[in-house]
Fold each of these.
Amino acid sequence: MIRAGLIRQSSSGVYSLLPFALRSIERIEKIIDQEMRNIGAQKLSLPILLSANMWKRTGRWDTTGSELFKLKDRKTSDFCLAPTHEEEITQLVANDVFSYRQLPLRLYQIGRKFRDEMRPRAGLLRGREFIMKDLYTFDTTEEAALETYEEVNEAYNKIFSRIGLPFVIAEADTGNIGGTKSHEYHILSPVGEDLILSCMRCGYTSNEERARGITDNDGCPVCYKDSITSPLKSNRAIEVGHTFLLGTKYSDPLKATFAPENPLYKGELLSIQMGCYGIGVSRMIAAIIESSHDSKGIIWPPSVAPYRVCIIPGGDEPEITEKTRSLYDFLTSECDGLNDEVLIDDRMNLSFGYRMKDAELLGYPWLMIIGKKFLESGKIEIHNRHNNQRNHLEFNEIKNLFIECKQI
Amino acid sequence: MIRAGLIRQSSSGVYSLLPFALRSIERIEKIIDQEMRNIGAQKLSLPILLSANMWKRTGRWDTTGSELFKLKDRKTSDFCLAPTHEEEITQLVANDVFSYRQLPLRLYQIGRKFRDEMRPRAGLLRGREFIMKDLYTFDTTEEAALETYEEVNEAYNKIFSRIGLPFVIAEADTGNIGGTKSHEYHILSPVGEDLILSCMRCGYTSNEERARGITDNDGCPVCYKDSITSPLKSNRAIEVGHTFLLGTKYSDPLKATFAPENPLYKGELLSIQMGCYGIGVSRMIAAIIESSHDSKGIIWPPSVAPYRVCIIPGGDEPEITEKTRSLYDFLTSECDGLNDEVLIDDRMNLSFGYRMKDAELLGYPWLMIIGKKFLESGKIEIHNRHNNQRNHLEFNEIKNLFIECKQI
């Protein structure tokens, strides 16, 4: 990622996101925004600088340990840099929600989070400052909260499907977040920190952590109940999403309550049933690259590529420059989903070969070459980075390539 | 802003941005993105958590004083929460730029900044955690840097013009940022912290701070040079933008240098000429509201309104519900610039009068009422929040109202 000019290290586990990486992240955010909107979630933005008060009330000020960045302001009050926002959002909802009429409520944000990792590693994979999407849901009953949980998991399926890389969903432990039910979303990659066990027979999938002691080639515990022995296969994977059914773990101590529709007695208040749902947005970029590259460089899925097309002019003859410009105009105005998605590599002080190699390293889904051959035949040489195919197409034939991009 | 449900205080000077405020902020960001792109600036994202090293090299670790939030990580290394990013971006450019061929370069970001204000005040006007756009420019010569400075100031003019509120540009001091030339952009408001002095005759405008000792009704110092006495008028204003021509204040200590096109001697390196340019994005929301409201509530300029239209159904009869839905579909699909900009206030447990008052408080540019009168006449009652006019229009006549919204 450093060689491709995506990120630069500022300090251990802390990175600057350069323009290409940021574009890719904004892509992911757009997909998330759309799918969150489809399930009626509203976007807000909570502070990074959090007062210690509520963290002390839930006990996490002490239990989170040294992963929590702590600081004092000029009046020596305690603050932390948000690693997650259960306390903050629960407090917010506790102050504004009073009645069943205001529920269900689904609130999410996309922003910075901080965790003082003991051993930050592998660039954006485990950073100390990172970008997360976190959704918090609020329901009146356990059943409604469970339905919400299923609905959000469906939205997660859509998000990961749209990004377009193979992913697995595993049952997971709830850890420091707490709650009663939890799933992880993983992108498969040999450099992944997590080991995922899957049963080919029944589809049971679990994080090794949760499967406690069960490992590769052991029998599937679900099939075992049916007296069948089916060996589990293990795969390395990178966790990019996590869902938690929280129950009242946060609404109880922070008194996030509501008056029910049919109270048992006058003034009855019930605790709100919560869920929380994260996606590691900056980590996703790293996971995508780990899972989708070859010896030449990155292979971006078109859905999240910083740019979808790179045009490489073969020389600086006026005719080539002019045709390059025409192709650019044609792509950005006539082809679905390519507006603002096309780049021209006109660094003519660099050789054609260098620019080709650079474009392959950067991983544009489509490379288009306007050179001498084009001037002779009127056909553009197009490289598809994903399947390595080369085509020679005329302007009008190009359009069909991008019909599917409209939906992305 | 609290009453209108835009923000909630988390701690002193630290706020959560609720969905309406965030939508408005995303609007402003979009306008900024477009105008930055028009001057060839690339967007990136620098860390919030900054190592103290570079701040010590420029001397600002000590000179910034207690406004700087300082903290230590688990290895007790010094960090601060970024109040601004001159050090970080200069270091980044110093590591990646070597030759005049890579210049000019314009890099910007939109993100959180932190300042431990002694007296945080007035919500988002002076917060301890806030959102800023900051652009940094890199040129080979002083002349080129000055041209860049003028070009960015033109882009700033466009940004503030598009937002649509009266603003003034004042000569300003360079303060802790440093540099040789500086201008401030202000939105006029009686609650503003700054006092702006303007000469009606020659157009001279200056921040009182810079005008040192000159105050209201004193003679204009520019006109005085022509032996003319012209009294200055003072206006209270809120600073929302600031531009600085930096010279080599940061590139010298951080060794951001380049090999010039025509070196005087072999291996000659010159310091890059820099500029930096800020816009207070979250403060802008507060400034807009301070400058554009009446006794009923906010009057959003359409360019940055959270939603442009609110439809209020007069009752819950099936016919009204159906027509409300038709109007919603018509507006979002047939009217320019209204896709995703229309809200229906269908909280039918609240009275019509309450919802009308609430809509005026929230400041939607257009209110549309579908009630009994509509069923009789087929005309929709439309309130224009800006000029207080009421119109009764049929579906097809509505379209013309929004032709201008397309450009916003």
Amino acid sequence: MRLRITPRDTSFFDLLAELASHLVVGSQLLGEILGASKADRKAIGKKISEAENAADDVTHTIMRQLNSTFVTPLDRDDIAGLASALDDCMDHMEEAADLIVLYKLEEIPRKVSDQVSVLQRCSELTAEAMPHLRQMNDLSEYWVEINRLENQADKAHRKLLAQMFDEVQDPIQLMKIKEVVETLETAADAFEKVANMVETIALKES
Amino acid sequence: MRLRITPRDTSFFDLLAELASHLVVGSQLLGEILGASKADRKAIGKKISEAENAADDVTHTIMRQLNSTFVTPLDRDDIAGLASALDDCMDHMEEAADLIVLYKLEEIPRKVSDQVSVLQRCSELTAEAMPHLRQMNDLSEYWVEINRLENQADKAHRKLLAQMFDEVQDPIQLMKIKEVVETLETAADAFEKVANMVETIALKES
Amino acid sequence: MRLRITPRDTSFFDLLAELASHLVVGSQLLGEILGASKADRKAIGKKISEAENAADDVTHTIMRQLNSTFVTPLDRDDIAGLASALDDCMDHMEEAADLIVLYKLEEIPRKVSDQVSVLQRCSELTAEAMPHLRQMNDLSEYWVEINRLENQADKAHRKLLAQMFDEVQDPIQLMKIKEVVETLETAADAFEKVANMVETIALKES
């Protein structure tokens, strides 16, 4: 029998990367729900909830492991903060999906899918960035690009709202769509928060 | 005459517990305002404002005392952060009460009282948890339970909104109720932030 | 040729003061846009965007300089946090201006200009406070006054909303104005966050 003296494979970096991978799945499903018929939305919404539960589980594993690990590769509260910020991204995407199901929206403005494309790109960039935390290298492109995407999304979202105010006649319908659009924008903000957190950590560790 | 060499009774832990006790009062009054006639709401709203002022006073006492104390039992900014997060819970509950008074709501959907019950439970749990900060013991049950309550409240609040969209015909009435419901949800979020902060502090101090 | 051995003139304190000076410009332009005809709003909105870009540039300079400076006069993440919080004030003011342009609002309730006056006062107080960070003196009046202004603004904003709900008949018009009013309130909150951050820093450094 061999002693295991190397650390466990699932390090904090691996766990953060795993957490981010659930965001990629969630954002893909969010794209699917937009294109789906009202009848199919519920089933896709359920899959997003499963992705959210999976993300929750990883977050709790990270927190528990932080609690029982003596030496951590980054500051304890940076790891905890990052895990919780990644989890927030998932929560807002899941909320948007849930609202689409619950509000039984007839028509979703086509530009909403541009918002979801941004979230998909943010998820991918974030998942690619996590492994680089280990060496703190090549991260500046990531946060610059996320900030650029979020700025772009922010302008697009305001124009979309203004356009909806002109086009949608039924105020109640308008309120529903507005809330979906704003929840998607909050999800994009959440990705920006992760990127800013990574920037701050890199600053501190450099 | 005896010299007083022991520290003052009102330690930071006592002050945080006192602050949390105002949240218990506030959440009870919030329950009362829901059941009250429109004529009685104003008087109850005034009592909630008083509870909010009392919470403000304790928060300022904590900040002043932090400023004049050399050795603190927890990190200075953790105590400041916790006081300010507790104060936020109160502010959101007071805001919800104020909106109920100002908007002269005719009918408040019955499920809103479920939201307030959650806030009452959160207040009690938070007030019970504060004294345990001293020894950092038995706190994990508290934050797990608050997180569970908040998740539950979050799902319930979305379903409530969807139901209101189906039932309330007048869009302006709908906007008013929606804002009250969302402010109550923000208050529940604020309790979760306190719990997460306690978890982070416990993590760091352990 | 003389060697330059003194540090560069643009210290972090100067940069933070410069950042705050853009807030003063932004809040002045926000006042102008309220009084302007619909035709003139776009041009003023563009000037606010320019002020926002200028603020962004200073923020990035601060972040870059933090990255390349070995000894900083305050904690690295306090400077980063403060820069980012000041930048948030600008972003919310710019967002409010952008919404006023995009929503082509016919009439803006007169009390909205009270909200903007508060933002102008907050900007001035913040710009005056920044140079005092160097010696950490005379700052308590600043944060007490900002907190007082924000509390006042918060009450005023709720009353304004309640009044609008009574007066504005068209729900879509109401939704537009409500969003402008709430964005201005978020800007006031952002100034309070800066003040609270300054208070926490002063507490820590004292």
